Amino acid sequence: MAAEPYIRVRDDDRKFIGEIADYRALRATPRFNDIGEWVLELDADAYGAALLGTDRNTGGGIVIIRDGQTLISGPILARQWRRDEDTGQGVLQVLGADDNWHLGTRLVYPNPAQTPETTTSTYYRVSSTDAEGIMRDLVLKNLGASALVPRRLAGLTLGTDGDRGHVQASPKYRWDVLLEALQQLSPLSRTDDDPKTDLGFRIAQVGMALQFQVYQPTDRTGTARFSFDFGNLASASWQSKASTATVAIAGYGSVDDDSGKSLAAAYYSREAVDSLYPYRIETFLDATSIDPADVDAEAQLNQQTTEALTNAAGSFGASISAIDTERLQFGVDYQLGDFVSVELPGSRFTAPIREVTLTYTAAEGEVIDVGIGTNSDTAYTRSTSRLVRRVGGLSRVVRKLTTK
Asked: I need a labelling partner for 22 at 20 to 30 A (CA). Which of 189, 298, 379, 395 fits?
């Protein structure tokens, strides 16, 4: 079983200025291809509180280490102080996000080399390359070393380029949030329409620098299996929802009919399969801005119809209360984004790990809450699943971290 994590405190230059071990409670929630969060509560007169106070640490953050690996790293975004009614002690609560937060602070400029006042471009687009290359280009030019100087995140580097993902031209960007552009690219990166090949991305602290990393989650459906029969599943529930469209028809180009009315000059269609609800549901897309003479017209149509079907895809969310055993542990046997299996009486399904919440208190030890689902936008997927860790030989569900 995992040892209790320790916390390293960093300043605004990401230099480590101390460690915290005397906290009351800690909750950390890393998320797959999204912004994670953390909450730390400690006595206001503790050594750690001094490291995190506004008089000593503005623009800093923390790095949480679990089993020798970084669980989450990120900036401080809020602080709260209160007086404990029972003890009369001051209590400091510090809240923050993980370093993916930085991806949500930038827009994709129509021309990343120009300021908003001087831009002359209608949109920004990356030439045909693999999906990982598009992700790296967007980050490099809007947040990294090639961005305009005021927009650069100091110390941000790019990890090794693995040339992963489907080769394509990027969508057209114009003031899109960088994080949302990357999230859009993840399903577009898949191979043979297999969601298990969606790319993952994250920003992690490496030494004193931050690094943008693209990676391929692992299909662990054959080894990471939750089941009542295996003794690692205490309870479970799930819900699914049918797609709102499975066939996207796009009209592109433009011609005038006899009355002078503008019509699409040609049409393109793409189909998707909803294995749980195999209905044919058609939708129409206005793609008349795409010129049939463009050399990449088919690539543009493929992207628009793929995006439409992805947004219309059915969703699946599971809530499981499972026991983390020696044979199946987060961080060892499965990670964020990995596909796992859940086997229930009369039902078997596979889905990716969307988020993991780890809560630590002196009274309860460690508890891991796991969110599983095919669509991270569904409310059911978020913060509903619970993975109960065996602590002191007993399995127990721990309530959420709250301030009394």
From this structure: 395
pLDDT, position 392: 29
Amino acid at 36: G
The residues with which 236 forms a beta bridge, in sequence order, are 320
Say if CB 26 and CB 96 are below 8 A apart: no
CATH class of 6-96: mainly beta
Whether 98 contacts 132, CB under 8 Å: no
* Residues of the chain where predicted confidence (pLDDT) is lower than 50: 376-404
Q: Between 178-188 and 297-312, two packed helices, what is the crossing angle to 10 degrees? A: 100
Q: What's at 348, amino acid-wise? A: R
pLDDT at position 377 is 41
Q: Which of 326, 325, 315 is nearest to 371 (CA)?
A: 315
Strands 156-158, 262-263: pairing is unpaired
CA 55/CA 295 separation, integer angstroms: 58
Q: 3-state SS string over 96-139?
A: EECHHHHHHHCEECCCCCCCCCCCCCCCECCCCEEHHHHHHHHH
Domains of the chain, residue spans = 6-96, 104-215, 225-241+315-395, 247-312
Residue 333: both structure tokens together: 């046997």
Contact present, 108 and 114 (Cβ < 8 Å) = no
**Pick from 202, 242, 206: nearest CA to 335:** 202
Distances (CA, A) of 56 to 10, 11, 131, 263: 11, 9, 42, 64
**Contacts for 84 with CB less than 8 Å, ≥ 6 apart:** 90, 91, 404
Does residue 291 contact residue 123 with C-beta atoms inside 8 Å? no
Q: Please provide the DSSP assignment of 211-269 as one string.
A: EEEEE---B-TTTSEEETTTT-EEEEEEEEE--S-SEEEEEES-EE-TTS-EE-SEEEE
Q: What is the pLDDT of residue 375?
A: 54
CB 200 within 8 A of CB 186: yes
**3-class DSSP state of 334:** strand
pLDDT of residue 399: 31
User: Hey, what are 154's tokens?
Assistant: 């100091």
Q: How many helices (H) and strands (E) would you count in the chain?
A: 4, 27
| CA 132 from centroid of its chain's CA atoms | 16
Task: Provide the pLDDT for residue 401.
Answer: 41
